[in-house]
Every structure is written in C-alpha cells, then in structure tokens.
Amino acid sequence: MQVTVGEIATFLGGQVVGDEQRLITGISSLAEAADGDISFLANPRYEPMLEETSAAAVLVAKASASARVVQIVVDHPDFAFAKVVQQYGPQPRPMAVGIHPTAVIGEGVEIGEDVRIGAYAVVGDGTRIGAGCRIFPHAVIGDDCWLGEACIIHPHVTVRERCQLGHRVTIHSSAVIGCDGFGYASVAGVHHKIPQVGVVIIGDDVEIGSCTTIDRARFGKTVIGSGTKIDNLVQIAHNVEIGEHCIIVAQVGIAGSTTLGKYVTMAGKSSAVGHLSIGDQSVIAAGAGVTKNLPPKAVVAGAPAQDIKSHHAQVVYQRRMPRLQATVKELERRLAELEQRVKDNQA
Amino acid sequence: MQVTVGEIATFLGGQVVGDEQRLITGISSLAEAADGDISFLANPRYEPMLEETSAAAVLVAKASASARVVQIVVDHPDFAFAKVVQQYGPQPRPMAVGIHPTAVIGEGVEIGEDVRIGAYAVVGDGTRIGAGCRIFPHAVIGDDCWLGEACIIHPHVTVRERCQLGHRVTIHSSAVIGCDGFGYASVAGVHHKIPQVGVVIIGDDVEIGSCTTIDRARFGKTVIGSGTKIDNLVQIAHNVEIGEHCIIVAQVGIAGSTTLGKYVTMAGKSSAVGHLSIGDQSVIAAGAGVTKNLPPKAVVAGAPAQDIKSHHAQVVYQRRMPRLQATVKELERRLAELEQRVKDNQA
Amino acid sequence: MQVTVGEIATFLGGQVVGDEQRLITGISSLAEAADGDISFLANPRYEPMLEETSAAAVLVAKASASARVVQIVVDHPDFAFAKVVQQYGPQPRPMAVGIHPTAVIGEGVEIGEDVRIGAYAVVGDGTRIGAGCRIFPHAVIGDDCWLGEACIIHPHVTVRERCQLGHRVTIHSSAVIGCDGFGYASVAGVHHKIPQVGVVIIGDDVEIGSCTTIDRARFGKTVIGSGTKIDNLVQIAHNVEIGEHCIIVAQVGIAGSTTLGKYVTMAGKSSAVGHLSIGDQSVIAAGAGVTKNLPPKAVVAGAPAQDIKSHHAQVVYQRRMPRLQATVKELERRLAELEQRVKDNQA
Q1: Which of A274, C85, C204, C260 is deepest in the core (most CB within 10 A)?
Q2: Claim to verify: residue A300 and residue A162 sit in the same structural domain
Q3: A112 lies within 8 A of chain C by CB
Q4: Which of B167, B172, B238, B245 is catalytic?
C-alpha cells in the first residue's frame, strides 16, 4: 500500500494531528509496528505505547499531546482501523468469476447474479443461492436450501437439506449446519433414533466459525439471530434459539431447546444445559456452566454458574480454607483449655 | 401429510380417546402445535399442557380425563412419535440411485446391492461397502475398510484405512474415524511420533456426530460397542473401548486406553483421563472430569469427579463459606472475650 | 512380518538376552501380546508383566534376570519400538505416484519432486508444494501457500491462503489452518467484522490433529513452533504464538495473542485466556483454566488455575468442609455453654 495520512483521514472522516503528507506503507499493531505502518489505539490502557511505537501514524479516539507520532482522531479507532485494513490492506486473490466446471449443481437450482462457485462444490436440488454469494471449493449445500445475498461459504462446509441462511452470512471451513439433533427414545435397553425433521434458520450478518456444529431441530427450527457471531468448535444443539447480536466464543456448548436473548455473550468453553432461558445482555464467563434460567443482564461465572461477584468471592474463600481450618483447630484448642480452666476454678 | 387419527392409532397399535376421524396434517411439539398437528406427551411434568395445546391429537402413555384434545394411548409416546414422524413426516429427497459418475472407486472394491454413492465421494482400494449403504457427496473412505449394511456416511466424513463399521452405522459430516492416536516417545528433547498402526472397530447401530474424532489404536483396536450413540465434537483417543448402548454427549473427551462398560452416560463436556475403567450404567454429569476408576452404576459430578450427592453437598457448603468464615470470626471474638473474663475472675 | 530377534536387535543396535533366532511375526502391547509378537516395557511399573506376557520378545531398558521371555536391551524402549513398528509393522498401501487427474492445480503452482496428490485435491494459485509431500484426496490448499518438504495433508484438511508450513508437517483430517480470527468492533449495537489479514506460520515437524482450528492473525502471524504436537479438536486463536516442542492435548483452547514458551504441556481440555505469557516447560493439568501469566516450569491445575499442590490441597479441604462445618457448630455449642457457666459462676 502507498497512501498518505491525509488520504486515510479523508476516507475515515477523521482529524489529523501532525504531518498529513506522511506516507503509509503497511498495517500493524502498535507493539509490532515498523516505520511506515499505520496502527490504532483502542484501549486507553495502552496509551503509553503511543510514545514508544515505531508506527508512522496511529488512529486514536483522543489526541495525545505528548505523542510525537502522527495521529488521526476518529470516533471508534478499532472500527475505523478495520475499514482501513479493508480498504488498503492486503487483498486475497479474487475468486474466479462464474461456476467452476467441476461444480455439481442440482436440478431446479436458482442462482443469483455474480455468484461464484468453486471446484467440486456441490449444490443440491431445489436450492436457491442469492446474488453475490461465494461458494468455495468443496462446499456441500444440500437440497432445498435457501441462501440470501452475499453469503461466503468456505471449503468443506456442509449445509444440510432445507436450511436457510440470511444475507451476508459467512460460514468457515468444516462447519456443519443442520446435522441431526441428538435424540433417542430408549425402550427396553435400545436407543431408538428420533427423526430430526426440523431445520436451521440463520439470520442476516451471522458469522459461524470452523468446525462449529449446529443441529437441525427435532421438528420446528433451530434459530441463529441476525448479527450473531459464533467462533470455532461451538456446539449448538437442536431447537436452540439464539437472539440477535450475540457473541459465542470458541468451544461453547449449548444444549437442546435453550433460548438466548439478544446481546448475550458466552465466553470460551462456557456452556448451558438444555431447556433454559438466558436473558438479554447476559454475560457468561469463560468455562462457566449455566444450569438455571438467567434474567437479563446477568453476569455469571463458575460451574454451576452463579453471580460473578459471588463466584470471585468464593474463589477467594476457597484459597483461605487452609487458614480457616487452622483457625478452627486453634479455637478448639483454646476452648478446651478454657473449659478445663473453668472446671478447675469451680472445683 | 393427510392422515386420520384412527389410521395413526392402527399404525401404532394404540387406543384412541376421542374422534378417530380427526384429520392430522402436521407434526409438532406440544408447545408449538397448531391446529391439525399431532404431538406427544412423554414427561408427566408437562401434562397441564394437554389442556392448553392447540394440537389436534396427542400421543400419551395414560389418557387424561380432563383434556379435550384427542388422545392416542401408547406404551412409549416418544418412541411412538418417532415412528409417526418416520412414517408420515417430511421425507428428504431420495438420493439418486447408483454411483455418481464423479465418485472415485478404488481397485478391488466390493459394493453390495442398492448402494448409493454421491458426487466426488472417494472409496479406497480393497474396501467393502455393504448392501443399502448411502455414501453422500464428498465422503472419503480409505483403503481396506469394511462397512456393514445400510450405513449412512454424510458429506465430508473421513474414514481412514482398515477401519470397520457394523450394520446401520450413521456418521455425520466432518467426523473423522481412524485418525492417528496422539503418541510420542520423547528422547533428548524431541517428540518422536509413535506409529499408530491399529484400527477402529465400530459395532452395529452406532451413530457418530459431526466433527467427532475417533483415533485409531496405537496397535490393536479402538472399539465403539453396538447401539452406542455419540454426539458432535467428541474426542475418543486411541485404544479406548466403549461398551454397548452408551450415550456420549457433545464435546466429551475420553483419553487413551480408557474402557467404558455398557449403558454408560457421559453428559456434555464431561471427560475421563486415560487408562481408567468405568463400570456399566455409570452416569457422568455434564462437565465432570473423571480421574479414577468407577464401579458399575456410579453417578458422579464435578472435577475431579466424585459421587454426585457429595458434589452437590460440596457446592452448597462452598456457597455457605462466607457465612462460615463470619461465624468463625465471631467465635474467635467471643472466645477471646470469655478468656479475658475468666482471667479477670481468677485475678 | 517375518524377522528374527537378532535382526531386530541389529537394526536397533540393541543387546539380545535369550534366543537370537526367535522368529517375530507380530507387534503388540505387553498385555495383549500373543506368541510370536514383539512388545516393549517402557514403564518399570509394568515389569511384573514380563513374567506373564505371551510375547516372543520384549524391548527393555534393563534386562530382567527372572523373565523367561527373550529381551532386547535398548536405551529407549518406547522409541525403539516405534522404529520397529515403522520398519516391520503393517504398511499402508502406498499412495499412487503423481498427481491424480481430478486434482485441480492452480496457476503458477510449484511442485517439488515425488509429490503425490490425491483425487479432488485443490491447490490454489501461486502455492509451493515441497518435495515428497503427500496431499490426500479432498485436501484444499489455498492460494499463495508455502509447504516445506515431506508434509502429509490428510483428506478434508483446509489450509487457507498465504499460510506457511515447514518441513515434515502432518495435518489430520478436517483440521482448518488459517481460518479468520474472531474479532469485531462493536459500534452502536452492531458487531463489525475486523478483517483478519495475517497468516499462520507453522514450523518443522509439527503434527496437527483432526478438526483442530488454527486462526490466522488479525495482522502479523499466528505461530506454531517446530517440534510442537497438537491433538484433535484444539482451538488456537488469532495471534497466538506457541514455542517449540510443546504438547497440546485434545480439546484445549488458547485465546487470542497468548504466547507459550518451549516445552509447554497443556493437558486435555485445559485453556488459557487471551494476552497471557506462559513460561517454558510449564505444565497445565487437564481441564485447568489459566487466567494469569505463568513463569517457566509452573505446574498448575484447577479453574482459575493455581499451583498444582495448592490446588490438590484445596480439593482435600473442600471435601472436609462438611466436617469443618460440623466442628464449628459444635464449637459454637460448647462456647455458648461455657459462656453460660462462666456467667452463672459470676452470678
């Protein structure tokens, strides 16, 4: 890249503090920036790095008077930086236009404008692929699916029959959408499979990580709300309903029929048992195991999960246990001694 | 679907309480049922829903006198309902008959009657595919494998060389059967790979979830017993032996050489370290980490796992810790006061 | 296999104690060995098995005087056994020479000598495949990747654009290398994707398990050091740096920007939050959740992780809690009684 600070500021609608003519040739984090790089400061905690960085320019929310580096003042430095990376950063090779001759397209498939489909991709009968979708090599889309516009389906993704994706949905490699839910009727010592005839419905602007599995509903639908982002290796069981704009971090597991409100955050490796209702804007800490319904704005940690302050207090109390036990032992000794003394006095 | 209550009752061998001529046009859960739907009541806890449901008919184990809805009395409502769904529910498009022209079939492959193989599937040399198997697009079966009858292999499954599947085994997308176990000999600071030359042997009627990984044995075999059901994202290490009819829920991990008896349940995210023996009918709660052998019918929770009652008691005790600590502090105060008083008395 | 004990000893540079002419026809563990098998004794704990084993010969570090079985004395019996298995054990069918006609090779791809590429593999534009690589069917290598010599890429692996693999790297099925990191800038209730334009750099002699996901860096690089071994279903987030010769067991999760030194062991299901530094030779027990920086040679357990001895003590104290609570209650009773007695005396 070859662009001046002034051009970037104009693109972002930001204010330059310093030399507008400074040439930007790369993109980096504050810590790793080399001469010519542009970077950003999102967390005020790292402000001292403004003085040390080798970056040529830094996006900031508020200009620092003491920093010698060129600054561009913008409202949301991290978001602005994302735009800079998108606009000026390294671009992947564009996918070849059209449908690769080896792609297998079923009967009655409807394909929108400017759809690109890679080598060996398979699209089932009756499926609809919206305009501008990118289906990478080796993706498999089942029969009678519905994909909105501008979806990105990475290599080795499986979308099973009848599932629906909104607009601008991205699914990463080896994720599986619409596999069977895990349900059996156990009769006389044999687990009989319960057919899983429902679907998965995914809203707009959803991103789903690699090797994440989202089960189709037993009947009805498993739902992922618009704007929700799901990381890698997450398990979402049948009939789960996730609201809009949730953040589900890697290796989370959500058991069957549990419902999440809007703006719920589940940190890495946390989990929820089945048939729960988790309120809007709840935050579930890393590794927490939720076993009860949560009201809106709950913040919980631990397994079984409890209010995060109680959890933290409990961790402290646990670490004090050796001392507590010693204290109790000493109390016992002193009490026995005192009992003896009182007895002696009475005698 | 268009079928009367009477026809369904006859199919199930059940007793109708109410209008046999009622027309059923859909399938649903009690909570979501709309007019025309058939549903079922498996858990007596939900019996009050019989009065509220909009369903046209409900499968029940025992007829409710107060419910106005048409009831069909059967032995196992959930199992009976599974049969109804299978028989009358939405049917997936049938897979095309025969072997897709793009499938790559190795030398010396034996293929039974009515086998269907999808686009781009790969079957290695010397492999045997039993009658009635469905191999979906993009499945890869290695050399010298053995598949029983009526197996279903979903897209993007990998079955590595020499592994054996019984009859009616279903494997979901992106699962990997027979990948190398994780074994190294560390000499002078270098981890040398120990060849993993064993296999995986899977019994009859086993189901394996998406993105589940089952390692081949170092030598000998990793075994999954008949009737066992395994959910998504489960890790089963080399030389593990799982008995018959076990239930292994999502994100479970079982370390090398551990043995499970029959009818063991491992709930979501639970785990067992290596070289353990877990007795028949044991139940391991969600998130539990088993570190010791378990006798038959053990029920454990927590990490490290212990008897579930002790675990629950411990959780309660932990939450009482702030109070306990306060109590001890108060005891200390009172004891010091009393000591002083006794001392004063003596003086 | 048909080889004498003497020939194996010569191959290993070991000393035979017993009959050099003994014919070896198979390979097994001590416990499962049948007549004709060779086995090994690595853990002195199992020495009594030397007297019971049906093996024909056993690799040992020190000859046992009482054992009747033929022994071959070598420095590292497990490593020596790995060599025997490699040399004489069952060999997989060799992959067909050359590039399968259905493989799709991009423009400007550089392919070294003796590279074998299987059916339907896809190699992107500008990618370099080193000599002796084995790319199995259905592997997808993106544009502008760099693979060293003798890499093994199993079926359904995805390596995304611009990632680099050293020499002798093995990647197991459905692993995903270089998928997008999980990063968003949340503005006015919308999570905007932060482009992930960095790469993944993998050293030499690295092995990566099935369904493991390694995210590309936001910018810069995610790094896996030479000699490191990673098991199945592991999540490694963007900008993580793992040192050389680490052991990362199944279902581990490492959050963004965390750095591991050399020879770190993370046992199964353990995890580390983001932006941590974990010192050389640290050991993180199964299921532990690391939330703070660790110095070199730390050994930690529990969640939040602490020194393993403190953790074990804490587990013991927790299990004593019912007794402690009873003790405190009894102290209260005795103290109240004594208070009353002292009061009565004074009266």
Answers
A1: C260
A2: yes
A3: no
A4: B238
Q: How far apart are CA A246 and CA A242, in angstroms?
A: 7
Which residues of chain B neighbour A174 with C-beta distances below 8 Å? 156, 174, 211
Q: Choose one of B63, B88, B113: the last residue of a domain.
A: B88
Angle value at C-alpha B250, between B247 and B253, nearest 5 degrees = 85
C109 near A CB under 8 A: no
pLDDT tens digits for B148-169? 999 999 999 999 999 999 999 9
Q: How many domains does chain C have?
A: 2
Q: Are residues A206 and A328 in the same domain?
A: no
Token pair of A220 as six digits: 């009805």
A36 shares a domain with A17: yes
Q: What is the ipTM of this complex?
A: 0.95
pLDDT for residue C285 = 98
Residues B214 and B264 in one domain: yes
pLDDT tens-place string over residues A90-127: 888 999 999 999 999 999 999 999 999 999 999 999 99
- Catalytic choice (A138, A154, A172, A238): A238
Name the strand (E) or helix (H) holding A52: helix A49-52
The C-alpha of B293 sits at a distance from chain A's nearest C-alpha, in angstroms, of: 23
- CA closest to A216 among chain B residues: B210
Asked whether the beta carbons of residue A182 and residue B232 sit closer than 8 angstroms, the reply is yes
What's residue A29's pLDDT? Answer: 87
Beta-carbon contacts of residue B214 (< 8 Å; ≥ 6 apart): B175, B176, B177, B178, B179, B200, B208, B222, B224, B236
B250 φ, ψ to 5°?
A: -55, 145
Alpha-carbon distances, residue C261 vs A327, C212, C280, C298 (angstroms): 40, 20, 4, 11
pLDDT (tens digit, 9 = 90+) per residue, C254-289?
A: 999 999 999 999 999 999 999 999 999 999 999 999
Residue C61 has pLDDT above 90, yes or no: yes
Chain A residue with CA closest to C346: the answer is A346
In sequence order, which residues have a C-beta less than 8 Å from that of residue A126 and are 6 or more positions away?
A106, A107, A108, A109, A143, A144, B93
Select the residue of A29, A79, A231 nearest C220 (Cβ to Cβ).
Answer: A29
CA distance C210 to chain B (A): 7
Q: Does C316 touch chain A (CB under 8 A)?
A: no
Partner B contacted by C86 (CB < 8 A): yes
CB of B338 within 8 Å of any CB in chain A? yes
Identify whether the C-beta of residue A254 lies closer than 8 Å to the C-beta of residue A240.
Answer: yes
The tokens for A217 are 């509903």
